[in-house]
């Protein structure tokens, strides 16, 4: 009898686990299953990441574009990855400390490009290639996701949305329920600062019930994640590999079951 009770509890826990990691069905994501996304645009020698030049190059080459959005001091949505300006612009301070106009005058990686607004990028792309918009937003805040929804609801081109923040995706799910959205994740426990219960939950995709993703974007090096494999094989989840940096890595990612790749520093096969 104790054995049956324990077995029953284990079965119940496994069912709960499956419910928690199950993705949301969205037929629209099938359109992007094989799309190749240039990570922060098609950047490289003399072309800065998340720049108008990088986005022009991606459009001309026919690749989808992955980009990052966050808020400026005056509430404009700008395209920039880092929280701070030091790495890309060589300037101290956070992106949120400066207005969109001030950011536009800051040079990206020594090039002639400044930090673009999201509206400028949308005007450039104008539906020519699909967009993969990553929301950069702190937990408990919804300014970025709200502004992203406000702008994209009037955009006529193809786009999908992703974030590491499940609460941001949950907010998007409420306001743009038909738009495919994806949770970004990785094996956080590789890094000492992330060895905390919260990051174990994120690593194992146990937040999927909250953010209702229709695809999963996972660090391609962490393909052995059990939750990722179950979501793919049992639920048919569409999976993107990030960030792939060579043809060798691309081949490995496909062998490991990823549908498509978010790539940089090389031209995909």
Structure description:
The chain is globular and about 75 Å long. The protein has 11 helices and 9 strands. By secondary structure, it is α/β, with parallel strands linked by helices. Helix 2 links the parallel strand 1 (37-39) and strand 2. Helix 2 packs parallel to helix 5 (118-125). The model has no long low-confidence stretch (mean pLDDT 96). The protein folds into 2 domains: 35-161, TIM Barrel; 180-269, TIM Barrel.
| Strand count | 9
Low-pLDDT runs: none
| Structural class by sheet pairing and helices | alpha/beta
CATH class bucket of the largest domain:
Alpha Beta
Give the neighbour order of strands across the main sheet.
1-2-4-5-6-7-8-9
Q: Average pLDDT value?
A: 96
Which architecture of the largest domain would the CATH scheme give at its second level? Alpha-Beta Barrel
Largest sheet: 8 strands, parallel, barrel
Distance between the termini: 58 Å
Order of helices and strands: HEHEEHHHEHEHEHHEHEHE
The CATH homologous superfamily name of the largest domain equals Phosphatidylinositol (PI) phosphodiesterase
